Records
---
Amino acid sequence: GFGYWSRKMGLAVDNVLAVDVVLADGTLVRASKERNSDLFWGCMGGQSNFGVITKFKMQLFDCPPQILGGLVLYSIEQAATVTSAMERFCRKKDLPLECSVHLYALSLSPDEKALALQICYLGDPNEGKEVLRELVECAPCLDNQSKVTTYQNHQVFSDSVYRVKGIPSYWRSRYVREDVSIPIDTIVKVIEVAPVEAILVIEHYGGKVRDFPTDATAFPHRDQDFVITMVGFGFANPERRKVIVDWINASTNSLEAVLGDGSPLNYDGHDSFRSFGTNLPRLRELKRRYDPDNFFRCNVNIQPAEVNVEKTSVVIEESPERDPSNLDLTGKERRPNSHDGTGTSEISHQGLVRPPAV
């Protein structure tokens, strides 16, 4: 999972320490780097191909009580200036890891489009204002809505945009290749012809996401910093579906020369090769071992590797018998939670299965 913390703390999968997984045969197991490590690796970015995760053990870190965040709106006539300024800003080698920027192009009404920078600084708000000043002031803005806020409020403030636009929706998301620049003129043309139901988003990540090799987790796309996403809302209206799909298809074609192979898995559904790249052969072997009948297939599906020899059994590391209701994800006896904002935390999906006995 991506988020405003990704540049500083990595992806969500980089902060998972252990999981409880229900396999296709109903077995409930624990997986971590120390235990059933191959299954753990596959679950960290392999979507739901290997089982149902009922519990996560997560690495925690401190969150500042106040941050700087919000939207800065510009007229659509400033699209080239703002998009170019955003790319230059995000490519700065000394850009603080606390800083993240996303760009939105959207319709305020059938007759009015606007551009918005979504800025976030996960540190001292006054420091953030100075860091972001050159970007925010790259062009005259219509409205600067950035403010001192909490991370919790910033995390959900854009939800209302998607609720207003309505669901269902049609998405297309791709990374920008590492070796190219964002094609500003093409982006502007895509924005200019976008239907009223459409939003174009350019997100920037990088930072600690890049600190892990492509095979550190099942998710491989770590060396491409920008993601371009096109969304068409109001897809429930049959008369508008073709307009939306045609715009997304045409936009993708016009940008194809700079687009990479994959996208964030929770944004879009590519074929398995585009989604998992060079990690796919290892994932197919894991699929053959843990789900040979492809029971878990409503996802970016990983086909089990072909079996050329007698199928081997999956060896699951077991623990000495102890009270399962009093074990944590690493198999240790539970102790009351007591931490100061760092450490670890367990998140359960209650009511699905009983606590694991192995």
---
Amino acid sequence: MTLMITLARRFITPTAVRQATRALSSAPGSSLTQAEILSENNAARAALEAEKSSVEKYVEATREIDPTMVWGTTIAPPDPDLPEDVSEIAALDPSHANQDPLTLTGETRVVHIKQEQAKVNQGSKNPEKQWVIAFGDEGETGQCWDNSLMGWVSSSDTMSSNMGLQMSFRNAADAMYFAKKRGWEFIIDKPIMRKGRDDDAQYQDNFLPQAVSGRVRREKKSCDQWSRSEAGSSHYFRPLKYHGIGTVPQHGPNSEDDIAPHSKGYYKLR
């Protein structure tokens, strides 16, 4: 019966419904009025809509937006019905019990929910916008050892080495919700707070300070920020030998000539 209803819902189109309605209304001996036929059709459509699953409704809604869409994310599916205490999910699903093994001492590990630390380089601070679940902050490094062959650090803790590569969360609340569903005990670390600047600092200020660039804009060509009194002068000299008993022999046609006097420095803007 379910298969017949599914096939009927898939192949019966509104055009076929209207044609069948006209045929019934024009058939001899038909005592149904137009209002009764319309009411029956609406009831049949409502029954078919009620039997559709959430996935079917989601696909139909996305195809109304774009008929060529195979699967879309424009309309988010409804949230699943979960118990009020989400930690009960871990008890209902026995597969969670073996995902995180106990420590060597037989204790349940505590995970840390924290932000990704931005690296100290010229990269952006975008990693700090994400939150991760870390397994290696409660002494799990005791399960590590130095590999005698290559000198690398080996570990028997698969969660601490792979968990950071699996998923990230938009905020601490989402990460906490996931940890509760898994039945993990967790600690939420303090968020990373960075004080913003109000001087419109940009990347170019790392190479040209704002005070200097402002002076250049004000004074223009008369700015002597980069003046060098000895700019353009010659600083050539012949190094001494290791024991300081004479100069190092030079190569070339004039290697025995005296050193020419230094050229005078001149004002130069760089």
---
Amino acid sequence: CEPTGISKCRSETADDVENERHIMLLWRTTFLASTHFNLLVSQTGPFSTISQRSYSMELNNSRDSVTQGDELVNFYGNGTASAYADMMDEEVKKTIPDLKLLLTSLPDEGLILDTCVGSGHMLRWIHENHGSQKTRQLQGIDISSEMLEQARTRLPGSMANLVLGNMLDVSSQVDESCAAVMNTFALHHATAKECKTAIQEWTRILKPGGCLYVGAWEGKGDIDYGDYSPGFKAVLHQQTDIIDWMTDSGLTIVQSRTHMEEEMGMNSFYVIGKKPTK
């Protein structure tokens, strides 16, 4: 489609626009992508790979709107969960190098907890590809019961314990009970304050020598959805901030990498932090 201004563009038909908009929302976890909006992302910090390129995403600085709630739960219901799961068949491949590194860095005992398990692709990959990990307990949390149903198709029976819950609340987890905690492409559903607190809590439940794995979109400010209003706010975070919050929580950064998302015109980033042994 041809741009008609910031955050807006023309399309062949209204139905095509609406259909593709929702598909991209599913695919990129609530991000409206290039065929609907010209996105401007503010890239900063030493890890940025596209600081010399100009993209468009209209941002603002309000950070006190609701990022969690019924609207978010409802968004991931109905047909969203199924379509998201289909697209994750390819998307999960981007995390495999990190998962391989993660699994070679863990203590011998402890739970692997995915705090935003979604369709279950990552836990399934861990179960299938590392024989030594098959005896390790796997657990996934998700805010959507429909997403958990998708995860159960990939993690049937006792393969993993799948629980309805919120990634921001792991208060039921015992201190130092997890070998790994994972959170990928869900932190845009949390404010900066919520992210910092969540990282502190995820660190609390890590065993000494355990690892926290975070994947997120690179940027700063709130996402402007243009004419589409999902009923909740999404917030971009800078990679340097995530790293600071992890180190402030006592983690040592094992790996930090950036990936250019060509069709999105922005960076994603992946960070692994390790809790020191006593």
